[in-house]
Specification:
Length: 67
């Protein structure tokens, strides 16, 4: 019975340790991932602008703010 309890506690400790290591690693690399995401978004926006031209203005027929 003690062996099973020790094995279960070792499993829980391994899961907690893994979560801590992953959290620290993620927090250290967060700025790099944000920079990569920003670069990809700018590239995507450039491609969209090239494919579709400038920004499209849509006049809403129910817009009452244009008196």
């Amino acid at each position: 019975m003690i062996t099973l309890l020790v094995l279960a506690l070792a499993g829980v400790a391994a899961i907690v340790l893994t979560a801590i290591v992953l959290g620290v690693t993620d927090s250290r690399q967060r700025s790099a991932w944000r920079r990569i995401a920003a670069e990809r978004r700018r590239a995507w926006e450039r491609r969209q602008h090239q494919l579709h031209g400038g920004p499209h203005h849509v006049d809403a027929w129910g817009d009452e703010d244009t008196d």
